[in-house]
Amino acid sequence: MPETHAEPCSSVDFALPARTPAAPRCSVLHGGARVRRASRRRAFRRTRRPGFALRLALGKAESLRSANSDAWILGADQVAVGPGPELLHKPGTEDQAIAQLMRLSGATFQLVTGVVLLDATSGVSDTAIDIQTLTMRAYGEDEAAAYVRRYQPLDCAGSFRIEDAGIKLFARIDSADFTGIIGLPLLAVARLLRTAGLLPGP
Fold first, then answer.
1. Confidence class for position 76, pLDDT limits 50, 70, 90
2. Domain ranges in the chain?
3. C-alpha angle 182/185/187, rounded to 5°?
4. Which stretch of DSSP H or E encloses residue 40?
5. Active site residue 77
6. What is the CATH number that goes with domain 14-195?
7. Which residues catalyse the reaction (predicted)?
8. Is the N or C terminus of the chain more exposed, i.e. has fewer CB atoms within 10 Å?
9. What is the C-alpha to C-alpha distance for residues 63 and 10, in angstroms, rounded to an integer?
10. Rounded Cα distance, 139 and 26, in Å
11. Mean pLDDT, to the nearest integer, of 135-140?
């Protein structure tokens, strides 16, 4: 991942059909906006964690509005925070990845995802927040270095991928929706789509 985006390694950008009799408009899911690391850090310090993630998600959705004026636009963004109040960033190099993993050894941090469903026609949006609380094992530097050199998580905030051998670095994951770990909490998305009438059911 580019250095400026503090989220897990996968990103998404695809179209979803909207199947409502009243509004058969397309839905666009956007996961590609980028901001500079320093700007992101300053903005985060001025905003609470859930609010910051929602702000980024709304920015993504709004960036597509003019080109998709008759669409439902779904924007999502995730920030990795901790331990403490600081954002986790993409390491970029093996040495920085190992150092970041050692900072996380035995520690607890959070992945906070904001999701926004925007009606581009009216400008009305609905939002959801997903929070994952993750605790790492107290692993040593040799284990961290071996993981980094084998799997190269240099473009991942936190210097791990939950979907590869990075999972062995974890002691505990507390979550209401495990799909939120990789950046798009599908239970929250489904709730937003149902509320908008884009999925069936109460």
1. very high
2. 14-195
3. 145
4. helix 37-45
5. yes
6. 3.90.950.10
7. 77 (proton acceptor)
8. C
9. 20
10. 47
11. 98
